[in-house]
Amino acid sequence: MMTSDIAYIVGLTALAGICIPLGGLLARVERIGPNWLEQEFRHFLIALGGGILLGAVTIVLIPEGQSSIGNSFWAIPAIIAGGVLFFWVERMLGVHHRESPQLMGVMLDFVPEAAALGGLIIVNPSLAPLMAVLIAMQNLPEGFNAYREFLEKPGYTPRKTLSVMAGLAMAGPAAGLLGYFFLSEQPVVLGTIMLVASGGILYLIFQDIAPQSRLDKHWGPPLGAVLGFCLALFSDMLVTQV
To answer: What pLDDT sits at residue 72?
Structure first.
């Protein structure tokens, strides 16, 4: 039974994680054409990723994190600590000119949710496939945005960038197995991780992702944020109604 569980976790998290480099491959299309459509589409996807991240925080990570720690008021300092932590991380990266808010958003979102997916295999295995679908939906636009962001940094070729993203995708199975073997019996620890990640995601959304999504006299990007949030909500509704 344990062997089949392990294979199941690795399979689900790998399928969800592969959407990160798949988003990067989509972003390799240099021109959609004309130029205004290229700009509109790129900013739409940035906003879409931000909306899905916001949905993941408000619909999945914070509620599940609160539930895991017994709906304690310690959820609030945990979220604040996450925001402060990733302010500090971004500031340290900024000193070395290595800021990557989209990539940080992928890591903050994917890793704790993959760990939660691993724990879910024991608690409620029937919900695991839908949870994997939600994660995959988030990873595709986030991978697109992270690729474009990362490629702008000196020294990163398309091949090197996709290699980094593929390595990040492999963190999913590792996090899922960690959740299965260790965190499923430590709900307070898992809940705290999810809450700290939520605080970091909220910081990144309002510090970096939302400002990047804006275009003067264009309405597609903010509608993308609304659509992204609704996609996260729709996925959660599928999970909770099964």
So the answer is: 85
**Which residues touch 171 (CB under 8 Å, ≥6 apart)?**
17, 107, 110, 111, 114
Asked whether the CA dihedral 40, 43, 45, 51 is positive or negative, the reply is negative
Q: Is the peptide bond before 34 cis (omega within 30 degrees of 0)?
A: yes
Q: Predicted confidence band at 13 (pLDDT cuts at 50, 70, 90)? A: very high
Mean pLDDT over residues 195-220, rounded?
68
> Closest Cα to residue 148, out of 233, 24, 16, 63?
24
CB 153 within 8 A of CB 98: yes
Task: Please give the backbone phi and psi of residue 118, each rounded to the nearest 5 degrees, phi first.
Answer: -65, -40
216/63: higher pLDDT: 63
Query: CB of 199 within 8 A of CB of 83?
Result: yes
The span from the CA of 50 to the CA of 63, in Å, is: 19
CA–CA dist 212, 190 (Å, integer): 31
